[in-house]
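thought: fold this chain, then report.
action: predict
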Amino acid sequence: MNLALRSVDVVVPCHNEAEALPRLHRRLAAALDGRAWRLIAVDDGSTDGTDRVIRDLAARDTRVLGIQLSRNFGHQAALSAGLAEVRADGAVLMDADGQDPPEVIPQMFELWEQGFQVVYGVRARRKASPILDVCYRVYYHLLRRISDVKPPLHSGDFCLLDAAVIRALRAYPERKKYWRGLRTLAGFRQIGLPYDRPARREGTTKYGPLRLVALAADGVFNMSFFPLRLIAFLGAAMALGSFVLALAVLGWYFSDLAIFGMRPRQVGGWTSLVVLSVFLSGVQFLSLGLIGEYIARMYLETKQRPEYHIASRTDQAAAASPTDARAPTS
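observation:
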């Protein structure tokens, strides 16, 4: 299909983005001028009037579809709700804060036309605090090392997905999704597109330290069994170390050599016994905690709870008030 004839749905999760959304809409309209596109704005339980902004946009622009979730389900669930509404030849996933530049999307289209089915943004430079930037870099390198698949470095949710990829992603049944990891897991022809990620201009970030840690944990536990393998490795290492220590203690006991002026029969052993017991108890509790994280996720999956609930939908017809409604022309 010719590039100019391809349609695209832009999926934008919104949580308290009333200030940023109108500007994003204007930038999208400018960047995608002359192309068939639609904005799917998913209101993820906002409390700042984001739902009213979406209704206003939908009333003025037939290309806007608003999805209001019944409460705040989280960024990844909002992406799921948006992807479920995609009907176009492809979809762009991006944030509402403007840090994912709409002006990059035409470059994604060009790579799409070349046959790539996934075009993901790579953050060449980002405006973030030095400490946070270091944390991001360490996390992405660590995730790539321990993951069963190899997600690209410095790549978030900003991407273009072909319809074939979207159909494949919809087949994943898990409720606790980590979309950027599943995108890599799905395969297909993928390519990265470097871009500069500017600082947020409107509003405040919704990803505080705790949410960032939770998202990082989703990446580790959803995409890797490394923590479980680490437990097995540590267990084997401790067993080997204990065996070597036991041989050394037995050798010292039977040789009755004096070490630092002390002989084995003069050592009571209570202190070392307590220290060793406490250490092993700590390792056991840590191991149980890691195993419990996987069990909790399996429990969540077996319940098959809905990932989200839609409270209402807003397009131009729904956005218009009764007094604004016009009778159809014959």
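thought: worth noting. The CA atoms of residues 175 and 300 lie 8 Å apart.
final: tokens above.
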